[in-house]
Amino acid sequence: MARPRFEVNWKMVDAMLRIQCSGEEIASVLGCSYDTVERSCKAIFSKSFAEYSAEKRKEGKVSLRRMQWKTAESGNVTMQIFLGKNMLGQSDRVQQEVSGPGGAPLESNVQIIVEGV
Questions:
Q1: Angle of helix 49-73 versus helix 77-88 axis, rounded to 10
Q2: How many whole angstroms separate alpha carbon 42 and alpha carbon 52?
Q3: How far apart are CA 59 and CA 1, in angstroms?
Q4: What is d(CA 43, CA 93) in angstroms, rounded to the nearest whole number?
Q5: Are 52 and 45 in contact (CB under 8 A)?
Q6: Which residues 6+ apart lie within 8 Å of 27 measured at CB?
Q7: Alpha-carbon separation of residue 105 from 1, 24, 108 (angstroms)
Q8: Which spans in 46-76 are helix H?
Q9: What pLDDT does 23 receive?
Q10: How many CB atoms within 10 Å of residue 37?
Q11: pTM of the model
Q12: What is the residue extent of each domain of the chain?
């Protein structure tokens, strides 16, 4: 007598993929092997689990970006700064130039000693 077929909870799989869980993590939570998830995916969706998971992970990233954007639009300055740095290439870098009297270059009294030459 064969072992009963394991039913994969695809709603749970989808939710876990949206938060970027790995296939091994998902299989562990479901209580089955990764191979079982892979076989079930091929049987139900006619695609590999890697292809299926890539689609669902993208959905999660879009959802996260949407939430970040809403947070920034609601006036959250921290999120506005984060998005500005990551999406617009902005930075906190401050460039400061130091010069001597009258704008002349600074003189340095650093002496470098090289031994054994």
A1: 130
A2: 9
A3: 41
A4: 53
A5: yes
A6: 33, 34, 36, 37
A7: 89, 61, 9
A8: 49-73
A9: 95
A10: 22
A11: 0.66
A12: 10-91
